[in-house]
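User: Please run a holo structure prediction.
Assistant: Happy to. Please share the sequence and the ligand.
User: Here you go; the ligand is succinic acid.
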Amino acid sequence: MPRTALPNLALIATGGTIAGAAASATDVVGYTAGTLGADTLLAAVPQLRELANIRAEQLFNLDSKDMGPGHWLALAQRVQALAQDDGIDGIVITHGTDTLEETAAFLALTVVTTKPVVLTAAMRPATALSADGPMNLYEAVSVAAHGESVGRGVLVSFAGEIHAALGLCKSHIQRLAAFVNDTTGPIGRSHPVRYFAPVPSGKAARFAIPPEAAPLPRVDILYVGAGTSPDLLDIVTSAGARGIVLTLAGNGSMPATWEDAVRRTTAAGIPVIRASRAGAGGVGPKAQDSDWGTHAAGGLPASQARVALMLALTSPNSTTLDRLFGSY
Ligand code: SIN
């Protein structure tokens, strides 16, 4: 890597639509995600050379719907190792949009560094007319190369906005600005880079990266529609769930028909988190939580509450669940 005044960034490519290819430039649906390699993504944006010296590596090349805890672990270990490398000033990760919020949450909850760690993705495959990936990559590199990104925790740069990782969720299936963080709103703009708030203090990682050999505990998400049977709780606990996130209506509102089954579940030592299917707003604690044994998900969407609970279950010294979820 040449020694210049430019920052040295590592790019970790993991797949997604940003690396997707279709047979036709007008096809933005029938493409294969995770097809092109990191070098092809970089070659599409020669302007990156003006921003940073970039060392690229391909960790996976997947459609992010096929990612899971093993991939999060491997990525977190790689990001942590790169963050400890004195020759690296920041890290950019290309990813699929579909489960980006889970990966971003896992990194935010585990990786310890003040160096910028910035995820990005795309809604249109690289072969599409007006593909959004090249500009998203350019902006993510700009964010990672920017001095004011230091100490801000894991960031997501997408469609011109900078988001905090925790509280983020993919909220649209087609729109190019597909992500919303309803807890914080966008914390900055990616082009040119500008933050709306000072660097937060006390942003420490909350959990150690679990050893790869030990699988993360199974935590299931149950979507509770009107009239859904609480039998689902018994089904997933019998199948081995060690924790459950309920995607409930409104403010994580528990149907009366679920109360007994939830009490039984939590009394058996299986934590139950109340998240919301409403898509925006934070789930607040309720007086009945102590009776049900439940915890409110706060500003985390169900997908991220699940990641946080998986980590909490691996960590004997973790903060209590109410403190954990209450902090988002
Ligand atoms: C994926 O998540 O890998 C496919 C969808 C996307 O990146 O938009």
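Residues 71 and 90 are 20 Å apart (CA to CA).
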